[in-house]
């Protein structure tokens, strides 16, 4: 979505930079930023959004974002994540509920008075202006004097290592360079909140990964609050303090990256975050968080009960490919084992990815490190695989 006007880049934050953008904060400043994290800075309270008055694309959203936090809204297309970002930016209006920024209700506050920086996927740079003019123009609109404008522009460009391009026009820059300029423009006002709508989606894989670390580094150095929207799981896991996984207008799970990957709370999250094996079955025994699951092919395995409650209930057992072993000496203590047949093995450089026929499905995946002496499996080979029971999570049916 394009920025409707340059006012969306303006901020009512303090005129002076809290930190020199091209310098690391001193120890005392770093402690101050760390201590501020955790205080609620952005709050969605029972927020709903409908475009036609009937269908809700965002359903009763309640979400608190801490000051200084990097929160990613992750989900498939149409899940409601971008709509939430646009409501926070002021480009869309909530149908119901309230959005608060630093305790202030902002539903009726226009975008240019919210004090928010914005970075778009398509950069939204003025093609007829130089890089310096792109960054200086909105400061000029605010009535800022030339000396301060020049200082702010230089600091922002140095921060993204683009100072020598100040006199170039956007058409003379690569996609990655344009994205750096867009990022500098969003930060030139020293906003306390920056929104990013799939900002790296147009970049190639290598540059995208490099920019992920650059953005995360800037966030850590400046201590700003970032709300980031993406459908890229790896991007979210790499950059975020917490991730809100959206589907069908609701948050399915909100957690730090490791917790989200290791302990998914439902089948959607397990299948959407990373690669996952899903074995359908029925709960045969249930004691606390321990479940005995009879798979559809008749086999029985142990699993950790997550969001199932009753014996006889249908379930999907989730197992990450890297937690599966086939060498007896590598089996974890108390591992459950099951017969498998090798369908094929794919060489992926650092890992070997084996596709197995397990419990009536030939899409079960096992990942093995590509180390010296690693046993080379062959298609058609019969093996016995196993995993620790805590790595098998009994979730709702897919």
Please give the structural blueprint.
Blueprint: H1 27-36, E1 40-50, E2 56-66, E3 70-74, H2 81-89, E4 96-101, E5 104-105, E6 116-120, H3 131-141, H4 146-159, H5 175-187, E7 193-197, H6 205-222, E8 225-230, H7 233-239, E9 242-247, E10 250-255, H8 257-262, H9 267-272, E11 277-287, E12 290-295, E13 300-305, E14 314-319, E15 336-347, E16 351-358, E17 361-369, E18 382-387, E19 393-395
Parallel strand pairs: 3-8, 3-9, 6-7, 7-8, 13-19
Antiparallel strand pairs: 1-2, 1-4, 4-5, 9-10, 11-12, 11-14, 12-13, 14-19, 15-16, 15-18, 16-17
Keywords:
globular, five-stranded mixed beta barrel, 24% helix, alpha+beta, 398 residues, 2 domains, six-stranded mixed sheet, OB fold (Dihydrolipoamide Acetyltransferase, E2P), 19 strands, 9 helices, Rossmann fold
Query: SSE string, helix = H, strand = E?
Result: HEEEHEEEHHHEHEHEEHHEEEEEEEEE
Strand content: 25-35%
Helix content: 10-25%
Give the number of DSSP strands: 19
CATH homology group of the largest domain:
P-loop containing nucleotide triphosphate hydrolases
Keywords: ATP-binding, Cell membrane, Membrane, Nucleotide-binding, Translocase, Transport
Function: Part of the ABC transporter complex PotABCD involved in spermidine/putrescine import. Responsible for energy coupling to the transport system.
Organism: Paracoccus rhizosphaerae
Protein name: Spermidine/putrescine import ATP-binding protein PotA
């Amino acid at each position: 979505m394009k920025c409707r006007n340059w006012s969306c880049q303006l901020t009512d934050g303090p005129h002076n930079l809290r930190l020199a953008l091209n310098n690391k904060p001193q120890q005392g400043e770093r402690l101050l930023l760390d201590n501020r994290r955790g205080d609620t800075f952005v709050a969605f309270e029972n927020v709903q959004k409908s475009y036609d008055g009937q269908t809700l694309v965002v359903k009763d959203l309640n979400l608190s974002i801490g000051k200084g936090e990097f929160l990613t809204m992750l989900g498939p297309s149409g899940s409601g994540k971008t709509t939430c970002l646009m409501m926070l930016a002021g480009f869309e209006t909530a149908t119901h509920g309230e959005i608060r920024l630093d305790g202030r209700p902002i539903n009726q506050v226009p975008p240019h008075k919210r004090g928010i920086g914005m970075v778009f996927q398509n950069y939204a740079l003025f093609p007829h202006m130089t890089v310096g003019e792109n960054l200086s123009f909105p400061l000029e609109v605010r009535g800022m004097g030339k000396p301060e404008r020049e200082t702010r522009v230089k600091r922002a460009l140095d921060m993204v290592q683009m100072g020598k391009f100040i006199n170039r026009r956007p058409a003379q820059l690569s996609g990655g360079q344009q994205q750096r300029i867009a990022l500098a423009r969003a930060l030139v006002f020293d906003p306390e909140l920056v929104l990013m709508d799939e900002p790296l989606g147009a970049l190639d894989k290598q540059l995208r990964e490099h920019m992920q670390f650059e953005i995360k580094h800037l966030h850590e150095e400046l201590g700003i609050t970032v709300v980031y929207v993406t459908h890229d799981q790896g991007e979210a896991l790499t950059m975020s303090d917490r991730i809100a996984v959206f589907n069908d207008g609701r948050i399915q799970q909100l957690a730090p990256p490791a917790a989200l990957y290791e302990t998914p709370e439902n089948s959607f999250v397990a299948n959407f975050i990373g690669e996952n094996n899903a074995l359908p079955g029925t709960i045969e025994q249930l004691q606390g968080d321990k479940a005995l699951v009879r798979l559809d092919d008749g086999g029985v395995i142990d699993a950790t009960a997550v969001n199932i409650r009753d014996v006889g209930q249908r379930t999907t057992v989730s197992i990450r490919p890297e937690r599966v072993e086939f060498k007896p000496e590598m089996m974890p203590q108390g591992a459950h084992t099951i017969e498998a047949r090798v369908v094929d093995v794919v060489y992926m450089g650092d890992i070997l990815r084996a596709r197995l026929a397990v419990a009536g499905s030939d899409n079960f995946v096992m990942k093995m490190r590509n180390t010296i002496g690693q046993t080379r499996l062959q298609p058609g080979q019969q093996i016995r695989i196993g995993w620790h029971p805590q790595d098998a999570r009994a979730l709702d049916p897919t």
